[in-house]
Amino acid sequence: MVPYPTTGPLVLDGGxxxxxxxxxxxxxxxxxxxxxxxxxxxxIEAVHREYFEAGADVAITASYQASFEGFAARGYSHDETVxxxxxxxxxxxxxxxxxxTHARVAPRTLWVAASxxxxxxxxxxxxxxxxxxxxxxxxLVDFHRxxxxxxxxxxxxxxxxxxxxxxxxxxxxVRVLREHPDARAWIxxxxxxxxxxxxxxxxxxxxxxxxxxxxVMAMGVNCVxxxxxxxxxxxxxxxxxxxxxxxxxxxxxxxxxxxxxEGTATRFxxxxxxxxxxxxxxxxxxxxxxxxxxxxxxxxxxxA
Length: 304
Prior knowledge:
41% of the residues lie in helices and 15% in strands. By secondary structure, it is an alpha/beta fold. The strands form two sheets. Strands 1-10-7-6-5-4-3-2 form an eight-stranded parallel beta sheet. Strands 8-9 form a two-stranded antiparallel ribbon. Helix 6 (137-152) packs across helix 7 and helix 8 crosses helix 9 (226-237).
């Protein structure tokens, strides 16, 4: 793992699946954007390039919903799944090399974060927004271990352990991290309100516990309604000096039965000043956000 930034703002990318859908890919499959890893990897690399060119410092890989169980259901072997997981990292690394080589971004350091999605993402029932898996911590350790090992084998700069609904799952991931002392990760939660994770944990307590973990380099929230972000950030910032990460969705709600987004979208960029004032410094977008949003984030953080 390379040294990671400890001060200053950082711009994350936006919705990967959103851009793939805009380019005509059908993401209704249970693998979601991870299915494109096998079918059209060049499209994923192109989206990473677009986000870097829009001003992102960090590309988050297309491994969020990739799992050994999910790929096995599509007929892929264990070794083939390892290859696809590592390919997700390689595609982001290739995009970074391309834009740097062709001088298509302002001179700056670009990073690749390997996405580690929650167990609930493999269930296809929206439980990553509830946390009601019925699994204990050891079962979650056993689920996350092989995927994290495969991703680390591709040498990302760090892991983006994201959309976690509970402190229980965060604890499980930390246990896996300890098996890889050189690994670093950010951990971000989904939340039910301005004070609690989706599973009901106090977000301030999550921050306090993760602050004591040296391999957790940053923490925050993602795929939450932008309206909820500022109080969540304030609560976390009061419990840690580590960077606070925010990448919200558009404010719409995922209907896991109909497999579509519902509700009214809002441009999360209108909330940026409040998030920065609350203590957020690593900011990007999640579902239903675009490269245009990231251009706005870049411009705002450049003046922060």
